[in-house]
Design goal:
This protein has about 350 residues and is mainly beta. Helices cover about 5% and strands about 45% of the residues. The chain has one helix and 30 strands. The chain has a four-stranded mixed sheet. A hairpin with a 5-residue loop joins strand 22 and strand 23. It is rod-shaped.
């Protein structure tokens, strides 16, 4: 209120200077002219418009020296800053730009002013693009156009960016989205005041598979759209039967450094290769436990063509035989876990998402 009163006094002083500069011959064309006007009162004394193009009407009451109103007194309207607010001869004020302007009413030597502030408020936000599909680790920038209730863009509007699920994708203060985990989806929200809009972000699932393309069976990963193909293994004896861990961070598979096969685990980016079983026999068909803490597999370490099911901790400790089948029939530990919701497991590959 104090700031508004100060602005009003400043604008009134400017108005009085303008009126005084006109001299005694300032024309007044209304029925009463301006010669009998001792004072003017503009109402409202202060107002705020929240969209460019919005308008409101000010009124000016003229009074004589006794304080009585003078109906029909001629009033001249002007603005101290027409880039902020314009006024027509009837006292209608139109918002033109953000800021504060004084709207001056004058009649003869009398004048009064109203402080009009134009402050655009966000009514709508449009985020583009409306959808994003990224591979894990990729980035893309979103933009947000903020507009007032008349659809006029608010220049320099600072929106707040948030991700509904930062384990899927993150977003920084400038709208840069980073895909975090394959096979996930989230929404990225731009907000300002009560206005908001969202973009749907999908992170491509990844598929682990074995291929003979390089002359031996090796483990590869690729995005669900076929892009980003990458070889994970490089074993002379090859690798096959890849299975994603439930958290999508690692791949277990059977691999050979010579003739016999072991159970190996590698990170999704190809780093951190670990030989879990390292046994002078064949270990194959790895299957993760639902919590990712253990891996079940088949082994012939108990005799030629005798296949038993074993389980081992994911760190390679506590190998334990679960079956005892001297007949030698080959068994499978069960349905592979870590096969994503977008597609089920196959003999040669699984999706990464859970």
């Amino acid at each position: 209120m104090a700031a508004t009163a100060m602005l009003r006094r400043l604008f009134l002083a400017l108005g009085l200077l303008a009126v005084a500069a006109c001299g005694d011959d300032d024309p007044a064309t209304g029925p009463q002219g301006g010669s009998g006007v001792a004072a003017l009162e503009v109402t409202p004394a202060a107002a705020t418009l929240h969209a460019l193009g919005d308008s409101m009407r000010l009124t000016a009451t003229a009074r004589d020296a006794d304080g009585d109103s003078i109906p029909g007194a001629q009033v001249t309207w002007s603005s101290t800053d027409t880039t902020v607010a314009k006024v027509n001869p009837n006292g209608w004020v139109f918002a033109a730009g953000n800021g504060t302007a004084g709207i001056i009413a004058s009649s003869g030597r009398a004048a009064d002013t109203a402080a009009v502030t134009v402050e655009q408020l966000a009514a709508t936000i449009m985020v583009t693009p409306a959808t994003l599909t990224l591979a894990e680790g990729d980035t893309a920038r979103l933009t947000a156009v903020v507009a007032d209730s008349n659809g006029v863009a608010i220049e320099g509007a600072a929106v707040t960016w948030t991700s509904a699920d930062e384990t899927a994708a993150t977003v920084d203060a400038e709208g840069l989205v980073t895909a975090v985990r394959a096979g996930t989806e989230t929404s990225v929200i731009a907000s300002m005041g009560s206005a908001a809009d969202t973009a749907a972000v999908s992170v491509l699932d990844q598929i682990a598979f074995s291929s003979f393309r390089d002359g031996t069976w090796q483990i590869y990963v690729m995005n669900a759209d076929g892009s980003g193909q990458k070889r994970l293994s490089n074993h002379p004896g090859g690798g096959s039967s890849p299975r994603w861990s439930p958290d999508g961070a690692r791949v277990a598979y059977e691999g050979s450094f010579g003739v016999l096969y072991d159970i190996l685990v590698v990170n999704a980016d190809g780093s951190g290769l670990v030989n879990l079983t390292n046994n002078p026999a064949n270990d194959f068909d790895p299957v993760w436990s639902p919590d990712g803490s253990r891996i079940a597999y088949v082994s012939d370490r108990d005799g030629f063509n005798r296949y038993e099911i074993y389980v081992i901790n994911a760190d390679g400790s506590a190998q334990t035989r679960l079956t005892d089948d001297p007949v030698g029939r080959r068994a499978s530990p069960g349905r592979p876990t870590g096969a994503g919701s977008r597609s089920g497991p196959t003999a040669t590959g699984t999706t990464r998402s859970t």
